[in-house]
Amino acid sequence: MRPDPDITPVPDYAALALRVRELAREFGFQRCGITGVELGTDEAHLRDWLEQGLYGTMDWMARHGDKRARPHELVPGTLRVICVGLDYGREVDEAWHNLADGERAYVARYALGRDYHKLMRQRLQRLADRIALEVGPFGHRVFVDSAPVLERALARNAGLGWIGKHTCLIDKDGGSWFFLGEIYVDLPLPVDVPAGAHCGTCTRCIDICPTQAIVAPNRLDARRCISYLTIEHEGSIDEALRPLIGNRIFGCDDCQLVCPWNKFAKRSDEPDFRVRNDLDRATLAQLFAWTEEEFLQRSEGSAIRRSGYERWLRNIAVALGNAPGSPEVVAALRSRRDSDNPVVREHVEWALARHGQG
């Protein structure tokens, strides 16, 4: 609802923009910026990516392609987007140690604690409610990875960081270990200056990718990406890719772990992001032993619930196939040899064959 200039004074939008940033920090966001709704160049990039089929089986990417780059179509009346970032950084050395121990499971750092979506959505809604106290009722909608939103492009335009060659957003003062969220608003707030790119000639993220999924700077082939394979992809994983997955059972962080800008990342002690279920130290065999009931109980409020129980077992079977041979590893695999799920059975047999137990 727009203020009627004949009845109420027009707000000082420049002052309101400053207030929005203050409030964002009060509600626990480490970064905040404001941008417009023009994403023409990014829309063309997205269309090209979709046309090449690089999205794998994520059909929802294709279904909502245009709306992602057109905020005013997704939410009619949108004039600006308030973008925020919330740090979740952890010690990089711990991640490397985990990856180096083939008997332990590696879970992407963002998924070790509670799912960030609910926490961020609540904070963003509180921020929107607080803005309403400043300016009166206004049109808005909160998003946290919950609709077709081109969030990294919007965040870049809002000055939160640039899109690195690995396609993650990088803040030169804070690295890339942070979550993104948005509020679409119908307020004509002044916009921030977009962030410039600072990757230079560095290609560490491209070079380290275990499956070479970063096929060119800013071009990710999701069909080869371990995050896609372990979280989004249903069914069998390409046998040629299985040995490259290592002990990564939910997501992958390698491209961020090697990024030199992450030396500036802020370590977070947000209670919701603290490790649950010892996921930063659990062995593959321990996690493979979870019953479906245990999985559902332990994954409640966690991002790992997204994979589902069968994919969880499939992923761990692959990792056990890549683990150093030991009686414990072989015993764990044999315990699932008669799984009711054919995909799990297939991956268990593949893993056993890797240990000479075919």
TrEMBL record:
PANTHER family referenced in this protein's UniProt entry, alphabetically: EPOXYQUEUOSINE REDUCTASE
Gene Ontology MF: a single term: cobalamin binding
Quaternary context: Monomer.
UniProt-listed SUPFAM superfamilies: 4Fe-4S ferredoxins
Active site residues per record: 145
Binding-site list for [4Fe-4S] cluster 2: 209, 225, 252, 255
Purpose of the protein: Catalyzes the conversion of epoxyqueuosine (oQ) to queuosine (Q), which is a hypermodified base found in the wobble positions of tRNA(Asp), tRNA(Asn), tRNA(His) and tRNA(Tyr).
Superkingdom as given in the UniProt entry: Bacteria
Keyword match Secreted: no
Assigned keywords, A-Z: 4Fe-4S, Cobalamin, Cobalt, Cytoplasm, Iron, Iron-sulfur, Metal-binding, Oxidoreductase, Queuosine biosynthesis, tRNA processing
Named cofactor requirement(s): cob(II)alamin; [4Fe-4S] cluster
Protein name as annotated: Epoxyqueuosine reductase
Chief place of localization: cytoplasm
GO BP annotation list: tRNA queuosine(34) biosynthetic process
Record-stated family: Belongs to the QueG family.
Chain ranges of the 4Fe-4S ferredoxin-type domain: 187-219
CC terms in the record's Gene Ontology section: cytoplasm
Matches recorded under PROSITE patterns: 4FE4S_FER_1 (PS00198), 4FE4S_FER_2 (PS51379)
Matches recorded under InterPro entries: 4Fe4S_Fe-S-bd (IPR017896), 4Fe4S_Fe_S_CS (IPR017900), QueG (IPR004453), QueG_DUF1730 (IPR013542)
Catalytic activities: epoxyqueuosine(34) in tRNA + AH2 = queuosine(34) in tRNA + A + H2O
Pathway info: tRNA modification; tRNA-queuosine biosynthesis
Localization annotation: Cytoplasm
